[in-house]
User: Which sequence fits this backbone?
């Protein structure tokens, strides 16, 4: 039934092209459709995992070139990997989308929004924690001196390019104290069970410093000596998602060197997105003769803080926290790492705390790393859907386990003009411990 | 009228953003869940019945053939565009309009996902019984077109047994109602004729379905057998006990391997066949019959039997079966699913013949099927990128269907004829039979502009175009 067509050379090439074995594992059954946030929102096959893979196959087979229109469908993907979790064929969607994005980047066909964002953020700030911290200091000064208010009032923001203006509007007040890696060993308060290293990461220590500190306290409370070695940096996930595989590899190597040198048994992160990426270092560096083995060990040693605590097992708090909360599943925890029960076990262990589940708690909130800046329209629609689900629970405290989700849902409360709190699982566990 | 004028007309009806016509975008509408493909000239996304009617009327006047599309999960090419045709897609018309718990019925738009309706009505302890394996993605409009079945149709019947009535747009754009909200209708059962007409009679725009109460107790049994033959004797043993399970499903060794490739469904490495049986009813009854089922499984040679009653544990037992088709992607990039039906007593013999065909044509065949009603799903596994493979697969598929027909069975149990089985229709029907069917279609759609080229073999005698003889009921 296929129409006769003249074939072009394949639009994919090089070592980082999506593997045919991965692409052709998709049998276009369509069972992913109803799990895809962008399909649910747009009702369009182009904005579905099956559709995006069909376009990759068409490019791979030389039926069509990579066009800006096709790129727009690929870039509209959140890379939330909800499709991957429900795919009966086991299509490694996250991997083929990252590689497809790398092909787009190499061909110079990224959208202007993504190019702009890559230039000042992905290529420059993220791979360099010192630069990032300096930038954050400047932003803090800018916010503290009241310049932000002034700029916002004067409407000068409209002169900035759209993506940056929106990002500016998203800047949360930065943490009063940044969380900074050091050579200090945070000693356990009780009998030592294990030595662990904590990923500090990029944005989280600057914007959610208190959550990082809570993570350290919760771990030491549960028999761990914790180090947060200097020299580490961003996990590289955002670069990989944008197709910048080269930078993401070098960032992975930096973290492997820094975090494994400390001689710990486990590597912990309280960021779901980073955990998912670190667990995939093995895949990312599988062709690197010097790092392949270390990367495989690193990935095996990596745990999300919630799964690690439940596995220990952690001390159930004895103090009562009488509140109602709801839980938002971070995509890279629920879909990429398939962890949905550990955070709930922790929340349910806190006496007095009542977990009210929201509808579709694992449907992406639209944060998705830099997505909220590069795809503001769809991001806002998904956020609005998420805020409706939260509102239906009648609860105004949202617990989650990833910095991006925290920022996005906070933004959602702000946009709705509602007061609401967004916190990490470890924040509330730390709060309960403090009351003991 | 040239094509750009036609496009403008469509955009005028549904809005510019609801017409897809760019060549890059149309690539994702050339397929459904089957092996067939064809690019449509445009895809239109109407938002209500009036828009559907206007779109179809415009296409009719312009001479453009039309096919309805739900979510494109069909397995017989039903939603593949006719040559030079457009698709009318229902993903925007996805609202549950009414749930009437007292009268146990629901009124829905055709784009509602089957599982979404079921999940919604379970809040009221009701269920929508037909459960295709693509339940979480397929739409009710598509289910009506194909008269879809599923595992639980063994006890409850296929879609046609659960449709009360529908609002339908005919090929010239006129709107009629078939059936009614009442349980029974007098006169000809037109909703019955319409269900399973594969989009050739008209396009449903509102559907009233029957809901059933959720049973008091459900118990699922999973039996592991050394091979398919032994598992088939277990099927016979269960049925001979006079037991009518709600579902009775089997998967063979190759399918088990595929499922295990993707994720551990808990099947032992040496499993040659997995049998799934589900009982529903009153607690005492399910408990008592359950003991008989369990005994029958052990007696016939099961090497392992698991059972579960809690919803979550039962779900675990079903995981492997529900993901079986997709899991075949871990073995080969394409499958051609043959939907043949055979008398239950012939199951083991026919499966033996299917294995012979697999060897003869050198094509791996995985079996996943509704054993209870003898509805086979041999899946021929292949790679369409290999020159000449598709042709060999089609020939092997025809051979499998011939075996089914010879055993006293038929071509399709629940997926429809569509494109993929139309050339095999003469295995079952004479020219006169097909002419009679076509004359029924002509009373709905005399100009044959809705989903033309499906169901009947190319070149079969079509009636001369005439007046529509079916007047429809007043709206």
Assistant:
């Amino acid at each position: 039934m296929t129409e006769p067509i003249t074939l072009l050379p394949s639009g994919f090439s090089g070592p980082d092209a999506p593997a045919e074995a991965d692409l052709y594992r998709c049998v276009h059954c369509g069972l992913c459709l109803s799990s895809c946030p962008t399909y649910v929102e747009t009702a369009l096959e182009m904005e579905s995992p099956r559709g995006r893979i069909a376009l990759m196959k068409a490019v791979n087979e030389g039926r069509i070139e990579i066009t800006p229109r096709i790129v727009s469908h690929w870039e509209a993907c959140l890379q939330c990997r909800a499709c991957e979790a429900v795919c009966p064929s086991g299509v490694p969607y996250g991997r083929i989308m990252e590689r497809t994005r790398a092909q787009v980047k190499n061909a110079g066909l990224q959208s202007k929004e993504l190019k702009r964002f890559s230039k000042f953020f992905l290529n420059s700030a993220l791979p360099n924690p010192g630069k990032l911290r300096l930038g954050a200091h400047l932003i803090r000064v800018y916010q503290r001196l009241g310049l932000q208010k002034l700029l916002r009032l004067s409407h000068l923001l409209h002169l900035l390019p759209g993506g940056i203006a929106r990002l500016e509007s998203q800047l949360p007040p930065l943490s009063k104290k940044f969380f900074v890696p050091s050579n200090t060993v945070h000693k356990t308060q009780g009998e030592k069970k294990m030595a662990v290293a904590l990923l500090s990461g990029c944005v989280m220590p600057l914007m959610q410093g208190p959550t990082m500190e809570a993570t350290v306290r919760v771990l030491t409370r549960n028999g761990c000596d914790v180090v947060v070695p200097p020299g580490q940096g961003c996990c590289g996930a955002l670069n990989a998602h944008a197709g910048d595989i080269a930078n993401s590899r070098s960032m992975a190597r930096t973290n492997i060197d820094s975090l494994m040198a400390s001689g710990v048994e486990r590597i912990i992160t309280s960021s779901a997105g980073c955990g998912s990426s670190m667990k995939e270092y093995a895949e990312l560096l599988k062709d690197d003769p010097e790092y392949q083995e270390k990367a495989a060990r690193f990935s095996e040693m990596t745990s999300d803080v919630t799964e690690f605590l439940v596995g220990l097992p952690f001390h159930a708090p004895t103090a009562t926290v009488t509140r109602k909360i709801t839980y938002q599943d971070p995509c890279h925890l629920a879909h990429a790492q398939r962890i949905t029960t550990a955070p709930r076990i922790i929340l349910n262990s806190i006496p007095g705390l009542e977990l009210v589940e929201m509808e579709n708690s694992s449907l992406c909130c639209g944060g998705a790393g830099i997505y909220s800046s590069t795809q503001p329209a769809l991001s806002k629609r998904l956020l609005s859907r998420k805020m409706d689900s939260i509102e239906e629970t009648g609860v105004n405290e949202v617990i989650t386990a990833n910095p991006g989700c925290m920022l996005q849902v906070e933004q959602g409360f702000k946009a709705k003009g509602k007061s609401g709190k967004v916190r990490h699982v470890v924040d509330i566990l730390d709060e309960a411990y403090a009351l003991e | 009228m040239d094509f750009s004028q036609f496009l403008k007309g469509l955009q005028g009806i549904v809005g510019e953003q609801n017409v897809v016509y760019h060549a890059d975008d149309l690539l994702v509408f050339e397929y459904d869940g089957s092996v067939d493909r064809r690019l449509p000239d445009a895809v239109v996304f109407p938002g209500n019945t009036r828009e559907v009617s206007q779109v179809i009327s415009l296409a009719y006047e312009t001479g453009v053939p039309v096919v309805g599309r739900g979510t494109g999960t069909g397995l017989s090419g039903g939603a593949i565009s006719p040559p030079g045709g457009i698709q009318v897609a229902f993903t925007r018309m996805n609202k549950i309009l009414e749930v009437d718990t007292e009268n146990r019925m629901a009124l829905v738009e055709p784009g509602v996902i089957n599982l979404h309706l079921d999940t919604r009505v379970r809040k009221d302890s009701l269920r929508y019984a037909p459960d295709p394996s693509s339940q979480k993605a397929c739409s009710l409009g598509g289910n009506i077109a194909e008269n879809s079945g599923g595992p639980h149709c063994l006890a409850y019947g296929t879609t046609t047994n659960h449709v009360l009535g529908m609002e339908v747009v005919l090929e010239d754009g006129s709107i009629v109602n078939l059936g009614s909200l009442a349980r029974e209708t007098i006169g000809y059962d037109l909703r019955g004729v319409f269900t399973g007409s594969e989009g050739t009679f008209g396009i449903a725009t509102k559907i009233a379905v029957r809901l059933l109460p959720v049973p008091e107790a459900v118990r699922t049994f999973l039996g592991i057998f050394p091979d398919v033959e032994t598992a088939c004797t277990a099927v016979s043993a269960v049925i001979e006990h006079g037991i009518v399970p709600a579902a009775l499903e089997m998967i063979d060794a190759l399918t088990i391997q595929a499922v295990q490739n993707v994720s551990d469904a808990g099947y032992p490495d040496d499993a040659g066949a997995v049998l799934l049986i589900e009982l529903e009813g009153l607690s005492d009854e399910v408990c008592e019959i359950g003991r008989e089922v369990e005994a029958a499984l052990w007696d016939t040679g099961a090497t392992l039997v698991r059972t579960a009653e809690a919803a979550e544990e039962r779900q675990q037992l079903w995981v492997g079966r529900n993901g079986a088709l997709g899991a075949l992607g871990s073995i080969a990039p394409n499958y051609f699913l043959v939907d043949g039906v055979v008398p239950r007593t012939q199951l083991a013999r026919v499966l033996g013949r299917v294995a012979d065909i697999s060897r003869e044509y050198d094509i791996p065949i995985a079996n996943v099927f509704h054993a209870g009603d003898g509805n086979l799903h041999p899946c021929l596994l292949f790679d369409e990128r290999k020159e000449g493979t598709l042709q060999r697969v089609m020939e092997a598929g025809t051979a499998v269907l011939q075996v089914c027909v010879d055993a006293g069975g038929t071509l399709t149990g629940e997926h429809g004829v569509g494109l993929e089985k139309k050339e095999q229709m003469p295995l079952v029907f004479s020219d006169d039979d097909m002419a009679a069917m076509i004359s029924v279609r002509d009373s709905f759609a005399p100009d044959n502009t809705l989903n033309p080229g499906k169901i009947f073999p190319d070149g079969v005698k079509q009636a001369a175009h005439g007046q529509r003889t079916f007047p429809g009921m007043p709206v």
Q: What stands out?
A: Chain B touches chain A through 50 residues (CB under 8 Å).
